[in-house]
Amino acid sequence: MDLRRYEAIDLTRDGQILIASFDRPEQLNAINSAVHRELETLFVDADRDDDVKLVILTGKGRAFSAGGDLDWLLELNADPAASARAILGDRRIQSALLGMETPIIAKVNGAAVGLGCSLALFCDVVVAASHAIFSDPHVSVGLVAGDGGALLWPQLIGFARARRYLLTGESIKAGDAAAMGLITEAVDGDDLDDVVSAWAARLLAQPEHALRWTKASINAGLLVIANAVLDSAAGFENVTQIMPAHREKLEGMRASNRSRSSRRDAGGDQ
């Protein structure tokens, strides 16, 4: 795997571990076109690399990922062809995550929202700092939860709870997410590095092929469901992604962000 091919996502090796970090800390690691395109190949490339025995996915700064970048989403709303291309990219990312045999740990250092939340939940082990939150607010911004939420949440926490959170966009604190089985565990932020390292060592200590093929067997059933759920959700999301209701929500968010920025510049929002 040629790490130099990747510029939007920071990749480093630590022995047998590949650490992939979202690297837009000032934007809370919001996913733009460049990051999205690299995600489409990252998990395939990592799984093909015989030297990579485990992947850790994380974010730099104070967030894991805030989801889709606002400016990029506005571009997609105005360009149906680009919207369709992005949705196809989502399906490639989902298929790669479900199909990879290499174990993957999500190290959630802060907010995991929208696509960022789905990417974390696709991972085999999800360890979050206690201050982190998980949220899939697709519906709240006029979108269908097509990047994984409609598949993953019902399987992890049941349909009743999934409906509550997906239909409202309500966020969940890491401790509550762990208690209901949405994630593996929540830990004190100061302990996050050590706990993730311990998980990595624990997985790497297992017989390699038994570990990889058990993971593949677990995901086999999920793949059967995914073929129905994700194709439907992706198609619906593609339509909502270019609808006026979505643009209205995005423009409202942009205006709100500008207002907060102006208050901070004026010294009124400490």
Task: Give a verbal description of the structure.
The protein is α/β, with parallel strands linked by helices. The protein has a single domain, classed as 2-enoyl-CoA Hydratase, Chain A, domain 1 (Alpha-Beta Complex). It contains ten helices and ten strands. Strands 1-2-3-5-7-10 form a six-stranded mixed β-sheet, with helices on both faces. Strands 4-6-8-9 form a four-stranded mixed β-sheet. The mean pLDDT is 95.
Write out key terms for the chains shown.
single chain; 270 residues; alpha/beta; 2-enoyl-CoA Hydratase, Chain A, domain 1; four-stranded mixed sheet; 10 strands; 54% helix; globular
- Cα Rg: 18 Å
Given this structure, which CATH class is correct? Alpha Beta
Low-pLDDT residue intervals, each spanning 5 or more residues: none
Number of domains: 1
Largest sheet: 6 strands, mixed
CATH third-tier fold name: 2-enoyl-CoA Hydratase, Chain A, domain 1
Q: Structural class, please?
A: alpha/beta
Count of beta strands:
10
Give me the strand/helix succession: EEHEEHHEEHEEHHEHEHHH
* CATH architecture classification: Alpha-Beta Complex
Count of alpha and pi helical runs = 10
Q: How confident overall, as mean pLDDT?
A: 95
Shape estimate: globular
Query: Strand-residue fraction?
Result: 15-25%
Tell me the CATH superfamily.
2-enoyl-CoA Hydratase, Chain A, domain 1
- The helix content, as a percent range, equals 40-55%
Q: Which sequence of strands runs across the widest sheet?
A: 1-2-3-5-7-10
Cα end-to-end separation: 44 Å
